[in-house]
């Protein structure tokens, strides 16, 4: 088993971190996603774009099995993380989500202190042996989320007391504190003002060094600014996937072109 | 003319006012309702209101004031040593006065015959017409005759005054009606005053509770030392006076039982709420939630009987006697356990609301970090819901303290300061019931102590309720 | 959570997704334990409900069936109408003792006619099988229908409570030995009479229709007065609490300015909903009885107290339904020139009505089961006479169903436990009907905006 895994892993590093093959998602009788095939690469920012209701957020939530919490949701096809099937019955979604972190549309800090928010993940996953290690993780995560300077003097004050942009950076710090391999972001800037958005975008670019980042966004400009690869979803189908520059300047599919030029969506 | 007929007459006048007001409005507008400021019906309402309301208000005031006026005139005719004696004598006079009326009707007596009735043979005759008097003194009889005459005279005046008011206002209203008169505004303002008055009933209720409790409690403390009540450790009422009326044994029983009830209800209720809102499938929730709500709809007397015939004997036979802790089927444990069952749905439905108020985004955040469901519940949802849950527990505690029937039937009547949960103890509410349903005289400390106990209970629950309501309100605002 | 023995981050980093590591296994075990706690809690709640219902139903079902002794009785004109003129006033002077003698004779004759051996039981012991209430029943029958005089009728007499208890398993031969009210020989006779068809156990309408009976005659105790008293109080609650509650809610929800005064009213209403019910009893005693001089034990006082108790519930429910009507409806009405009052009464109130009625029914159901305040206003008194028709009936003494339950529990004879449980079944049936009505109302008319 071990040697197979290594072989696969080697393959994946060069090929893809997450691979989706013929993924179908049903909500009850609604066929929400059809035949999605995509490879998400390591150390890359991948953007999912498309009009509302096109299935991009649904697909994002499939990647760490957040759809499990929605009753009536069925997923078919094959989704692998480092070659291991995410939907294999042996997989514990809890362990999966430790590897595939997530940041949500609206900042959702827990009504606890800033410190406890960041320390939550490491604590539940038992990542530290003592307080000093935990302090170190908290500091490192807050620094990486570019929040340390603002928050270091008020670690004990509630996370809900921060501004919107700070809250979202806190949520990012919280997500990276467990050192995930992939970070999923579901329209992380849609609730923020332009200045806070710019800070988060800068942060996403820095995070690329350690993580594979997948970001769902409404804004094409944002996708162009932060991502290296872009996937365009339309009506539950993955229409086009490729280099961001190519998608925006030279799309192959006429639907992509219509969307980019503002005729649909 | 009796009051009922008078009221009926005024109401008939008001009904006539409605019809006439409508017609007159239409007539002044030349039969064209479009020329009126308000709908024709509004003019009818205006006339009806004006005909009925001032007259009925006057009637109500008259009825309240008349006995006071008469009795202040009668009082000098009675010899009495104390205010209590005076009020007793006055009650007698009132009864005899009414009895004379009945007698006059049943025996067809003329006014002169009534005036010449003598006190010796009167008592049995009065009893025959249904008046409960034991004996009639000459003094009481003459006072009663004066009482009766005054009553009759004032009654005639009252009828006249009320009738005149109704008629005057009726005519006045009709005269006011012109096409540009804003009848709708008047009638709506009147309805508004009715609405305001209705919302003041709640305030009046609280005021009534506080006033009746405080005044009787002060009465109690005038005949029984407050120090004793608040500091004595024994509760031992005697029929012949010399009672020990210390509140502590009762408070201890109340608190002890409430604590047991909360120990039962809070974990079960909270876990039930958590399970049903976070874990259970829609189908399970569909039947389990209503089933638990049935528990909430069951009257407390049913729980009381359950304690008396099932739980009490079972606890005695299986726990208390084998463990040598007592042989009584009514005990703190019985009452606490059953009260706990009663509180389960209360705690669970309040907690359910509160847990559902925690935003889904917090759950998502936690699951997104790889937390299990129980970790999410324990580390995110419950801490976030904590203030609300504390509020719910306080409300449950207030319920437990004020609960009566379960403790009356399940806890026993012995006032004791003991730690043994299988011993019968008693509570504040049990003693309120037993002191107020007993045969002791109302003015005795043994009866009046119930009001002091009631005030204590009211204050305790008030503090808990207001605190709980405040916390829950603040909690809800946080997530709105 | 920060377990010292837990492996540090590398375990999760490199571990296969397919094989949970030790830490995850522990977490999953904790998850299963927590889920088990939850299931246990739900199961305990439901178990408590089942035990409670089974206990009450099991004890109370017997109250609806009663042991009767059927004997032919000849109504002797010489005893019941000594002057022979069939004047009701005269006949009323014959007490139950006269009828009792006649029943005793008929009983002995019936036993002899059936050929049942009496084993030397005395006349008194044989007649003792009959309830002491049987004579009163016969007297009532004759006074109601004087034509029966001189005829022989088959009279279905109530059996003594102990005989009834024997057939229901409450009384045994052993307990009868220690009992001064019954002897084992009488029980044997009762069994023989049952074999002979004279003694039957049948549905007992008197339990629902009859009045309460004294402490020594549990077999005759009925709920009629209590049911009527409760019904009177519910009428008063409905007539007073619904309009008052709706009016108060309309003011608070639609018209009241937001200021400290209305805030106070709101806190006050929320608090009133949580004031212990017994405090309302004290209020009733002090204000309605001692100050206003209303009669004790009367449905009017109980009804007023329950009205005050129900008001907060109705106000809270009504305000929720009023608030649920979207503002666009009000805007639409105001937009065509209706006054605010017209907008509320013509549009908002009708739309909120189902919710208001549901709240009212639920509040009344709660009031129906309320006991403690009624104890304080003298409703514990033993009442045998049926109250008159309203409105006078509102002022005459009556009982109430839950108070009757309490009364039954305070009596020594264990037969009253069965009566109390039976009364609770009746109470619960009423409550179920009311709640079902509320649910149907909500299902049929509820509107989601």
From TrEMBL, chain A:
Top-rank taxon, per record: Bacteria
Domain ABC transporter: 18-260
The keyword Membrane appears for this protein: yes
Alphabetical keyword list: ATP-binding, Cell membrane, Membrane, Nucleotide-binding, Phosphate transport, Translocase, Transport
Protein name: Phosphate ABC transporter ATP-binding protein (PhoT family)
Chain's role: Part of the ABC transporter complex PstSACB involved in phosphate import. Responsible for energy coupling to the transport system.
Topology relative to the membrane: Peripheral membrane protein
Record's subcellular location: Cell inner membrane
GO biological process: phosphate ion transmembrane transport
Gene3D superfamilies on file: P-loop containing nucleotide triphosphate hydrolases (3.40.50.300)
One Gene Ontology cellular component annotation held by this UniProt entry: plasma membrane
Major location (coarse): membrane
From TrEMBL, chain B:
Keyword DNA-binding attached: no
GO terms assigned for molecular function: phosphate transmembrane transporter activity
GO biological process, one term: phosphate ion transport
Topology in membrane: Multi-pass membrane protein
UniProt keyword Transmembrane present: yes
Domain ABC transmembrane type-1 as annotated: residue spans: 251-468
Domain of life: Bacteria
Membrane-spanning segments: 43-65, 156-178, 190-214, 250-274, 294-315, 327-347, 379-397, 448-472
Protein name as it appears in the record: Phosphate transport system permease protein
Species this chain originates from: Cereibacter ovatus
UniProtKB/TrEMBL annotation, chain C:
PROSITE patterns: ABC_TM1
UniProt keyword list: Cell membrane, Membrane, Transmembrane, Transmembrane helix, Transport
GO MF term list: phosphate transmembrane transporter activity
Pfam family, one: DUF3333
Localization annotation: Cell inner membrane; Cell membrane
Primary location class: membrane
Topology within the bilayer: Multi-pass membrane protein
Family label: Belongs to the binding-protein-dependent transport system permease family. CysTW subfamily.
Protein name: Phosphate transport system permease protein PstA
Organism of this sequence: Cereibacter ovatus
